[in-house]
Amino acid sequence: MFVYSVKSSKIKVVLLIALCTLATIAFLLASSMDNKAANKGGINLKAGNSEQRVAFLSQFGWEFDKDPTEVSEVIIPAEFDQTYEKYNKIQKEQGFDLEPYKGIRVKRWTYEIKNYPGYGSDSGCIRANILVYDGLVIGGDVCSVELDGFMHGFDKSQEDSGEKATEKEKSQPSTISQKA
Q1: 0.70 cut: is pTM over it?
Q2: What is the DSSP string of 85-117?
Q3: Which of 51, 87, 130, 161 could form a disulfide with 140 if both were Cys (CB 3.0 to 4.6 A apart)?
């Protein structure tokens, strides 16, 4: 018969090492999932700070002032009306979907676009809106604030397929707080 005794301090050390190993594995898995969520279709969706929001919008070739013209909080409605259904259709066409965010408060960052085809850099008519939740872009658009304007996704190639928006469709999601 072979008897081997182990001090309880050795058991504690082995358990501590095992726990640290599991925690490290969990952290690595979580960070890789975050990177996948923050990198949809080769597009970086991180928007937790000003540099990340500027980098996000720049990916599409837009030129704009680095300071937003407006920052506001909006609540994605719990039930979508016809306007939000059309707006979410634009989101789905560019790989986003606002339905999981129904009833949630998000931030909208608005930038003035300077290089939209057919508009001068000082026209002040073209805006890009970025919807951000938990440091990631969840949607947004490029639109004209003119009376008979338009709205489409971030990609410049979508500008030709963008639908003409009625005045009601052009209105932004309900603002609950200006300059958050």
Answers
A1: no
A2: HHHHHHHHHTT--SGGGTT-EEEEEEEEBS--T
A3: 130
Boundaries of every domain in the chain: 42-178
Calculate Rg over the CA atoms of the chain. Answer: 23
Residue 143 phi, psi dihedral angles, 5° rounding: -145, 165
3-state SS assignment for residue 11: helix
* CB contact set of 125 (below 8 Å; sequence gap of 6+): 116, 119, 144, 145, 146, 149
- All residue ranges of the chain with pLDDT < 50 are 32-37, 158-180
Q: To which residue do tokens 């050795």 refer?
A: 10
